[in-house]
Structure formats: structure tokens, C-alpha cells
């Protein structure tokens, strides 16, 4: 934009000097240069202040690292990268045999514990056994029930399923590999089928002109020649450069070297964007600008149509009220 304004002003100056045959001397040339600097500088300042612009905009999406709840060898997996899945669809299966053995063992022990509990209660009822025996057998039985539930939970989670609707990206898992239940070692990345959060990063000198509800425009590098309208949905109340976390290090000047930018979330409302929504990849890059007025209800085709039914000379007449102020 800056270069375009400079080139346009230069072309106008050359045309004026040629047409009006203005001599080039120590007065005319500096006047043209200083006048252009003042004019373009004022124009850029006013535009940047009243219409904040960000050359850094991106569509962000949420991912979930898939980490199995149990560790084991993958026995079944059909790679389906970038294919849409529904919540509950099977992603892969871990060898269930070790977990099944534990469940079977606990079930057998639970049968014996139930019998011991029943005998202890029967003996206590006949005044032969003690209350202590009843308490011990009951505690043993309850403990085995809890262990069985925990073992059954592990067995059920040998089948790893999709958490929500979405797709797996970069699926490198194969049968025979070992999946480990460690948060730092996910076996795949799952992308959720959520609407992308289109966020623009504005300089802090535009802070007073960033308000929720203001009209916005956004353009993507992947869709050249198209500018889509939207509305400011959220202005972040905090910057990452100022966050503090409890660590063993003290604050130092390096945390203040970068001013940071304000993230502003933009909701695209332009109906023309729908035809591109499925083609635009997550993380798409673009530019955005904000206009200093709030979105008002449309008076065009999308405006709500209200009709009043009145009687004129005892004949029913329908009167459209769109765009009119009605006082009752």
C-alpha cells in the first residue's frame, strides 16, 4: 500500500511538471518531495489509525494428540489419513490378551471372595464367627470389585476411538508398533471438525480501535482477488509476551524486548465464503482490516420483512414495514 501511494504521487508530480512546464530547481523539487511526504504520511497515519490493518492473519484449528490409555502392541490399524471420521470410530486396537488375563484372574478371585464373605456372614449370624471376619471378607470383596473395574477399564481402552468428528492427519502408525501411554509420545494427531478460528494479529497502537462487533475484512493468499467481510468476534484481553509462570528463574529484561501483537478473532459472515470453506486448509494465511463501525441489520435482500395488516375503508390491506419506524 505504501509503495502504491508513493508511485501514484510520483506519477502525478511528473505529469504536473510536464503539463504545466514547471522548471526543476531548488524550490520546486523540494516542495514536491516535502509535500508528498506530508500528504502520504498523513494519509497513512489516518488509515492506520481509523482502519487498523494486519498483514498477519491465520486460520487456527484445534487438534488432539491421540495417546492410548494403556500401553501395548498395536494389532489392528487401517491407515486412513485425512478421511472424515465420526465420534466413536475405531482408530486402532492394542493387543487385549494381557488385560483379558487380568480380568479373568480377578473374576475368579472375586468368586472366591464372595463365597468367603457369605460364609463369614452366615457364621456370624449363628454366633460362631466374629464381626472382624465379616469386616475383613467384606473389605477383601470390595477391593477386588474395584480392581476388576479398573482392569475392565484398561481392557475396554485397548480399542482406541475417535474423540469427536474429524480426521487423522499424518497417520504413521502400523501394526506391530508399540503404543505407549505417555503424554509426550502421541501416536497420531486428530483434527476436530470445528470451524476454524480466523485470527488477525494487530499492533498495539491500534488497541483503541479494536472493538467486538466492528466490521472486518479478510483476504487469503490462497484465494487471490477475493476479500470477505466479517465481524470482530473477540479481542484477546492478554498477550503471551506478558505471561508469568512459577519457575526457578527471575524476571529479566529479555521478556520486555518484544512488544507483541493483539490477537483478534474474526467471524466471516460473507455468504461468498461458503464455496471456499471446504477448500481452505487449516492454518491458511492472509491479511485483515477493521472498519470503525458496527454491523447493522441489512436493508437489502437479507433484511427481515415485516408486514402490517390494516383495514382501509373496511378492506384488508398489507403494508410492508421494512425500513420504517412504527409507532404504536
Key terms:
328 residues, alpha+beta, Elongation Factor Tu (Ef-tu), domain 3, OB fold (Dihydrolipoamide Acetyltransferase, E2P), 3 domains, 6-stranded antiparallel β-barrel, 4-stranded antiparallel sheet, 5 helices, 15 strands, 26% strand, elongated, disordered C terminus
List unreliable stretches of 5+ residues.
297-319, 321-328
User: How many structurally independent domains?
Assistant: 3
CATH topology of the largest domain: OB fold (Dihydrolipoamide Acetyltransferase, E2P)
- Give the overall form: elongated
Topology:
Blueprint: H1 2-19, H2 28-50, E1 53-60, E2 63-66, E3 72-76, E4 90-94, H3 97-125, H4 131-156, E5 159-161, E6 166-169, E7 178-179, E8 188-192, E9 197-202, E10 214-220, E11 228-235, E12 262-268, H5 274-277, E13 285-294, E14 307-312, E15 315-320
Antiparallel strand pairs: 1-9, 1-13, 2-8, 3-4, 3-7, 4-5, 6-8, 9-12, 10-11, 10-13, 11-12, 14-15
Describe what this molecule looks like in 3D.
With 328 residues, the chain is an alpha+beta fold. It has three domains: 1-50, no CATH class; 53-61 and 194-240 and 255-303, Elongation Factor Tu (Ef-tu), domain 3 (Beta Barrel); 64-192, Beta Barrel (OB fold (Dihydrolipoamide Acetyltransferase, E2P)). The chain is built from five helices and 15 strands. The strands form four sheets. It has a six-stranded antiparallel barrel with strand order 1-9-12-11-10-13. A hairpin with a 7-residue loop joins strand 10 (214-220) and strand 11. Helix 1 runs antiparallel to helix 2 and helix 3 packs antiparallel against helix 4. Mean pLDDT is 85; it is low at 297-319 and 321-328.
Amino acid at each position: 500500500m505504501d509503495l502504491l501511494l508513493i508511485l501514484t504521487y510520483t506519477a502525478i508530480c511528473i505529469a504536473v511538471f510536464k503539463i504545466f512546464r514547471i522548471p526543476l530547481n531548488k524550490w520546486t523539487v523540494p516542495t514536491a518531495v516535502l509535500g508528498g511526504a506530508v500528504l502520504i504520511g498523513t494519509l497513512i497515519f489516518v488509515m492506520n489509525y481509523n482502519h487498523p490493518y494486519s498483514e498477519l492473519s491465520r486460520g487456527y484449528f484445534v487438534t488432539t494428540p491421540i495417546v492410548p490409555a494403556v500401553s501395548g502392541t498395536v494389532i489392528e490399524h487401517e491407515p486412513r489419513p485425512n478421511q472424515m471420521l465420526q465420534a466413536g470410530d475405531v482408530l486402532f486396537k492394542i493387543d487385549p490378551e494381557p488385560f483379558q488375563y487380568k480380568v479373568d484372574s480377578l473374576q475368579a478371585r472375586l468368586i472366591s471372595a464372595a463365597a468367603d464373605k457369605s460364609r463369614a456372614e452366615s457364621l456370624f449370624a449363628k454366633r460362631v464367627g466374629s464381626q472382624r471376619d465379616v469386616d475383613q471378607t467384606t473389605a477383601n470383596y470390595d477391593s477386588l470389585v474395584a480392581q476388576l473395574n479398573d482392569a475392565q477399564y484398561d481392557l475396554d481402552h485397548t480399542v482406541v476411538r475417535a474423540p469427536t468428528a474429524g480426521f487423522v492427519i499424518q497417520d504413521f502408525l502400523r501394526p506391530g508398533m508399540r503404543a505407549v501411554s505417555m503424554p509426550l509420545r502421541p501416536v497420531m494427531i486428530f483434527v476436530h471438525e470445528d470451524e476454524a478460528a480466523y485470527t488477525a494479529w494487530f499492533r498495539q497502537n491500534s488497541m483503541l480501535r479494536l472493538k467486538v462487533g466492528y466490521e472486518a475484512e479478510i483476504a487469503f493468499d490462497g484465494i487471490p482477488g477475493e476479500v470477505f467481510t466479517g465481524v470482530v468476534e473477540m479481542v484477546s484481553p492478554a498477550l503471551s509476551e506478558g505471561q508469568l509462570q512459577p519457575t526457578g528463574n527471575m524476571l529479566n529484561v529479555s521478556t520486555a524486548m518484544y512488544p507483541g501483537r493483539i490477537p483478534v478473532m474474526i467471524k466471516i459472515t460473507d455468504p461468498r465464503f461458503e464455496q471456499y470453506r471446504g477448500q481452505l486448509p487449516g492454518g491458511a494465511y492472509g491479511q485483515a482490516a477493521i472498519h470503525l463501525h458496527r454491523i447493522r441489520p441489512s436493508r437489502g435482500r437479507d433484511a427481515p420483512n415485516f408486514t402490517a395488516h390494516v383495514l382501509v375503508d373496511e378492506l384488508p390491506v398489507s403494508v410492508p414495514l421494512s425500513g420504517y419506524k412504527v409507532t404504536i
